């Protein structure tokens, strides 16, 4: 029996985590790993202890900020990084697996925290209908390795 490689395991876990999201707009999952070990996980949604958007606002979701983004939500990669730091795990030199490429603000956090590689499944630019994945361009410009995960996974339609 062939053993799956860690990229497959971690991306499949990120896809599964995305299904935990309470966001009605988009489900995103993230896994932070280092030396073949998981150091943290996350998915997008409101901070713990606040509203679950799909339960509190099932029709329209949470309110939007001035740029049209969710006013409550933390992104999956933010949740994974914050949880790791809260629990005193070092993310320096780690790899982030995420189902949606990081936006520019998340890319800044990823770079600032010393994460050395990002593996993503879907393009943020395609999802948002913009011309370029600004977050990926930022990461590449400043030396963070970026890799588009190309394998086919069995995933839920809500993640596409």
Automatic annotation (TrEMBL):
GO cellular component: a single term: cytoplasm
Keyword Zinc-finger (UniProt): no
Stretches assigned to the CMP/dCMP-type deaminase domain: 5-134
Cofactor(s) demanded: Zn(2+)
Record flagged with keyword Methyltransferase: no
InterPro entries reported in the protein's UniProt record: APOBEC/CMP_deaminase_Zn-bd, CMP_dCMP_dom, Cytidine_deaminase-like, dCMP_deaminase-rel, Deoxycytidylate_deaminase_dom
UniProtKB keywords: Hydrolase, Metal-binding, Zinc
GO molecular function: dCMP deaminase activity; zinc ion binding
PANTHER family named in the record: DEOXYCYTIDYLATE DEAMINASE, DEOXYCYTIDYLATE DEAMINASE-RELATED
Family, as annotated: Belongs to the cytidine and deoxycytidylate deaminase family.
Record-given protein name: dCMP deaminase
Gene source species: Cyclobacterium lianum
């Amino acid at each position: 029996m062939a053993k799956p490689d860690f990229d497959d395991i971690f991306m499949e876990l990120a896809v599964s985590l995305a299904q935990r999201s309470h966001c009605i707009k988009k489900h995103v999952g993230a896994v932070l790993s280092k030396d073949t070990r998981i150091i943290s996980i996350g998915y997008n949604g409101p901070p713990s202890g606040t509203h679950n958007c799909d339960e509190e606002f099932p029709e329209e979701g949470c309110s939007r900020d001035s740029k049209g983004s969710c006013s409550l939500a933390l992104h999956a990669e933010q949740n994974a990084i914050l949880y790791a730091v809260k629990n005193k795990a070092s993310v320096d030199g780690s790899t982030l697996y995420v189902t949606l490429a990081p936006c520019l603000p998340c890319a800044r956090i990823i770079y600032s925290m010393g994460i050395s590689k990002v593996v993503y499944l879907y393009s943020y630019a395609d999802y948002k209908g913009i011309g370029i994945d600004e977050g990926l361009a930022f990461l590449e410009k400043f030396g963070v390795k970026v890799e588009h995960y190309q394998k086919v996974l069995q995933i839920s339609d809500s993640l596409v």
